[in-house]
Design brief:
Bound molecules: adenosine-5'-triphosphate
GO biological process, one term: microtubule-based movement
CATH superfamily of one domain: Kinesin motor domain
Family: Belongs to the TRAFAC class myosin-kinesin ATPase superfamily. Kinesin family.
Protein name: Kinesin-like protein
Mean pLDDT: 72
Strand content: 15-25%
Number of strands: 24
Structural class: alpha/beta
Largest sheet: 10 strands, mixed
GO molecular function: ATP binding; microtubule binding; microtubule motor activity
CATH architecture of one domain: 3-Layer(aba) Sandwich
CATH topology of one domain: Kinesin
Helix content: 25-40%
Subcellular location: Cytoplasm, Cytoskeleton
Length: 648
């Protein structure tokens, strides 16, 4: 059995050793949710088995070797919310946050795998229906623990909270007072990435914090799709800022100053989803694409962070808002716990394996947690050096800014602003356009398939007609008498539509019974539009006259005319008569259409044009009919076609 994961990733041991300064791996806990009622109803099987408290065994449904993954803790579907809270060691993270560390708990996994349930519990079953306390998630349990804990501290603690969501690659404040608007993410050397103008609310009681949580949860965007009735469509970050002012500490002096104190951040990532599996379309699909892109960026950063050479590597945290805001937790000075959530169903195995690999990789990342620096008094020489360095940096930056203004006065800044404002809009437009084009392509494909099917029927008909015509009309020898047209007719019975004709016609030369089309008054047998009179002497250029046909008179040749609807009907009726069976009804041929029509809707393009050949056959048959009418009348005792017709 293959085993993956970090055997040494014991969260308790690593955190108890004290994280300060030393390399600490990211802790990963795996939670397997129970089978949902939908999965059970569909009779889906479980592909996951927890063996022990830290190993998960995956059994591929079609056989094959089991694969085992090892994590800090593995929790099966029978574990309660309280079990999960304890196993994740969130209290220890809280203690670290109280000591000034920056700690993060984040859930990730496929859509519908139980991330939101793990962090905040199930959604309320109705308006005003409270969620039973036993189902409360990690966040509510941590809040309760923290508020209780700070009561017992000997120094006062200031608690503040912010709550944001990253929806379609834009940051939205879930606690904002005014009308919501996207907020910019900025970076300073001292603070790293942060969200500008994000509302940070001070609170003093558990109830107040729970209200803030409810406010954010109710504002967070969610939708229903095939795999989850209430699927979160955004990544949500709730941060508790914990400050414990001491006599030495001074309040921050400017906006670039890092906040003093610890942080405890809860991140509920939106689930990765296969659009084909969730059936997402339109807005849902746009959201899914945005979610998947940011998760991809996160996965890329995680892979690069694993590289032992990473200190020389550039980690592309700037690739998405999510990676910017998680940069410190993943690659910096934070203490991080990841809760990977999976479904046990064998149907979800590909996505589950991807989550397990992601989690295995993540637990090999190490951070170097750092507690708060005491802002004690610096020695004067050090302060002076720093001042000089900052002045130099300031001068250099001003110089660069001036240069930019000189080379392209106004234009560069305006272009940058425009790009920032519009890039996202453009991306959305492209995605909508893409969707529209896909739809059009589907329509064109179905037109093309229809045309091809029709073409096949026609080709078959033409082939049959040609075969019959050729077998019936061998080329005449020079000087020999013309071939009797009746030999073109293999069937003896009349094909005329009853009750118009019950007659039997015979060939005037050889007395073979003739089919309907050789009848001299066959016009009576056919619908009127079939027999549209041709212009006298008309011979299509595309027609190859039969050997016995009279040569066309000079100047009588006309350019081939457009095929009309009646031509089409005529061809079909003709084909039916000759083949002795009903021709598969099909649409009239597509017109050549204007050149600006979509390719697939233009008749003939790319598909062999059978029209001239059908016309040729029609012409040949007509000529042979004329010829048969000009043949000498049979003797008295034979029944001529004319005679036969008189009885019709
Ligand atoms: N451990 C569990 N026990 C019972 N029900 C669970 C458990 N985990 C998840 N569920 C249920 O499964 C469904 C999906 O869970 P949840 O919404 O938490 O998934 P998610 O991973 O957050 O999905 P998304 O990424 O789409 O937001 C919910 O109805 C939830 O109540």
């Amino acid at each position: 059995m293959e085993e993956r994961g970090s055997p040494d990733g014991d969260p308790a041991r690593n955190l108890e050793q004290g994280p300060e300064g030393s390399e600490t791996p990211i802790q990963v806990v795996l939670r397997v949710r129970p089978m949902s009622t939908v999965e059970l109803r569909r009779g889906e099987q479980s592909a996951l088995h927890c063996s022990g408290t830290r190993t998960l065994q995956v059994s591929p449904p079609g056989g094959g070797p089991d694969v085992a993954f090892r994590f800090g803790a593995v929790l099966d579907g029978a574990r309660t919310q309280e079990d999960v809270f304890r196993a994740c060691g969130v209290k220890r993270l809280g203690e670290l946050a109280l000591r000034g560390f920056s700690c993060t708990v984040f859930t990730f996994g496929q859509t519908g795998s139980g991330k939101t349930y793990t962090l905040t519990g199930p959604p309320p079953q109705g308006e005003g229906v409270p969620v039973p306390p036993s189902l409360a998630g990690i966040m509510q349990r941590t809040f309760t623990w923290l508020l209780d804990r700070v009561q017992h501290l000997d120094s006062p603690v200031t608690l503040r909270a912010s709550y944001l969501e990253i929806y379609n690659e834009q940051v939205w404040d879930l606690l904002s007072l005014g009308s919501p608007r996207p907020l910019p993410v900025r970076w300073t050397k001292a603070r790293g990435f942060y969200v500008e103008q994000l509302r940070v609310v001070e609170f003093g009681s558990l109830e107040a914090l729970m209200e803030l949580l409810q406010m954010g949860l109710s504002r967070r965007r969610s939708s229903s799709h095939t795999l989850n009735q209430a699927s979160s469509r955004s990544h949500a970050l709730l941060t508790l800022h914990i400050s414990r002012p001491t006599s030495q500490q001074v309040p921050p002096v400017d906006l670039g100053e890092p906040p003093v104190g610890g942080k405890l951040c809860f991140v509920d990532l939106a689930g990765s989803e296969k659009v084909a599996a969730t059936g997402s379309q339109g807005q849902l699909m746009l959201e899914a694409n945005s979610i998947n892109r940011s998760l991809l960026a996160l996965g890329h950063c995680i892979s690069l962070l694993l590289d032992p050479q990473r200190k020389q590597n550039h980690i592309p945290f700037r690739d998405s808002k999510l990676t910017k805001l998680l940069a410190d937790s993943l690659g910096g000075r934070g203490v991080t716990l990841m809760v990977a959530c999976v479904s046990p169903s064998a149907q979800c195995l590909p996505e589950t394996l991807s989550t397990l690999r992601y989690a295995s990789r993540a637990q090999r990342i190490t951070t170097r947690p750092q507690g708060p620096k005491s802002p004690g008094v610096k020695p004067p020489q050090q302060v002076e050096n720093e001042l000089l360095r900052l002045q130099e940096e300031n001068r250099h930056l001003r110089f660069q800014l001036d240069q930019m203004h000189t080379t392209a006065p106004g234009a560069h800044g305006a272009r940058m602003a425009w790009a920032q404002r519009n890039l996202y809009g453009m991306l959305q437009e492209f995605m909508l356009e893409n969707e529209r084009l896909r739809k059009e392509m589907r329509q064109l494909r179905s037109s093309r398939d229809l045309a091809r099917a029709e073409q096949r029927v026609l080709a078959q008909q033409v082939h049959d007609l040609e075969r019959r015509l050729l077998s019936a009309c061998p080329l005449p020898q020079q000087g020999s008498t013309p071939v009797c047209p009746c030999r073109m007719v293999p069937a003896a019975s009349c094909h005329a539509l009853p009750p118009l004709c019950y007659c039997h016609h015979f060939c005037p030369l050889c007395r073979v019974p003739l089919a309907h089309w050789t009848c001299p008054r066959r016009e009576c047998h056919m619908p009127q539009q079939v027999l549209e009179p041709e212009a006298p002497g008309h011979i299509s250029q595309s027609v190859w006259p039969p050997p016995w046909a009279p040569p066309p008179s000079p100047g009588s040749a006309k350019p081939p005319r457009e095929r009309s609807q009646s031509d089409w009907t005529q061809t079909r009726v003709l084909a039916e008569m000759l083949m002795g069976e009903e021709v598969v009804p099909s649409a009239p041929p597509l017109s050549a259409g204007p050149s600006n029509m979509p390719y697939g809707l233009r008749g003939g393009s790319g598909i062999p044009n059978l029209t001239p050949r059908l016309e040729t056959l029609t012409q040949q048959i007509n000529s042979s009919l004329h010829l048969s009418q000009r043949q000498p009348q049979p003797s008295e005792d034979t029944q001529s076609p004319g005679q036969g017709l008189s009885s019709c």
